[in-house]
UniProtKB/TrEMBL annotation:
InterPro entries: Ribosomal_uS7, Ribosomal_uS7_dom, Ribosomal_uS7_dom_sf. The keyword NAD does not apply. One of its GO terms (cellular component) is ribosomal subunit. This is Small ribosomal subunit protein uS7m. One of its GO terms (biological process) is translation. Gene3D superfamilies: Ribosomal protein S7 domain. Residues 151-302 form the Small ribosomal subunit protein uS7 domain. It comes from Anopheles albimanus. Belongs to the universal ribosomal protein uS7 family. Its main location: mitochondrion. It is found in: Mitochondrion. Keywords: Mitochondrion, Ribonucleoprotein, Ribosomal protein, Transit peptide.
Amino acid sequence: MITASVKRLKYYPTIVTAVSVPVSIALAYANIWSMTTAEIVGAIGLTSSMTLSLFSMLTNNLVGFVYCDETQSKVILEHYSRKMLRKLAFSIVQSHTTARWIVPVARMSQYGPHFIEPIVNKEEISRLQETGELSKIAHVPIKAALSNQSSSVFYDPLVSQFTNYVMKHGNRELARGLVERGFENIKRMQLERYHLAESDEERAKIELNPRKLLHQAVENCRPLLQLTPIKRGGVRYQVPIPVTEKRSYFLAMKWLLEAVREKERTVHFPEKMAWEILDAAANQGKVVKRKHELHRQCEANRAYAHYRWS
């Protein structure tokens, strides 16, 4: 760790200074070099020793009070990972009892833990009004809604998230325009199929709303399992683990955009996006094959599933 490294490092300039300063003074008296050179050598050694000593004290105070040993004699720094250091700020031990309090790290947020997330969906607000739960949270502080959140009927969280994944270098206007043009292409393709349909039954099966098609495509591309490498006995095994709902949506949209960008560059992005969404909505295409291939690999490695808990 950094504290131990600085503690070891601060002794080297001290030793070098203790040796070099007398030698420099002796050489100055022997007229081999001037007394000014000897003073410069001494000043450099003294400055470096004091700097490293001060830095060692500073890191002791900032990093060293992370863990207190069981004997309660000294405060030591264990080899914790960065993730554990975020969760554990101080470990304070009473001198006469074995009680220990864990003080959590201050969150980098302007809202306290008692603030709740904003509810922008009108359907959710109506449901809370009908069940009477809205009156329970009427006096609870609520976080401010994000700039891209709205209670409009045209607002769709999934479309907004998909637009964020399309966006590059913060150019949201361009990303929104590309997604809207992709929806226009989907609408044109579906209308063409609708007018070419021969019977009313075929027309009833054709979905004309591009936003619903995007929802259907993402649902068809969502993986249920994924592989993670776990090392046991010097060998890394690909262990199947379940995917959380949030990550499954992320992987589905990520794979869709990767499939869009892998297509030929001579075709514009909205057209490629329309093709991929229509294929995925019909449970076809490259992304659905990728999901099935991942599930087959997880099925083949199911013998290693117990390594997840061992």
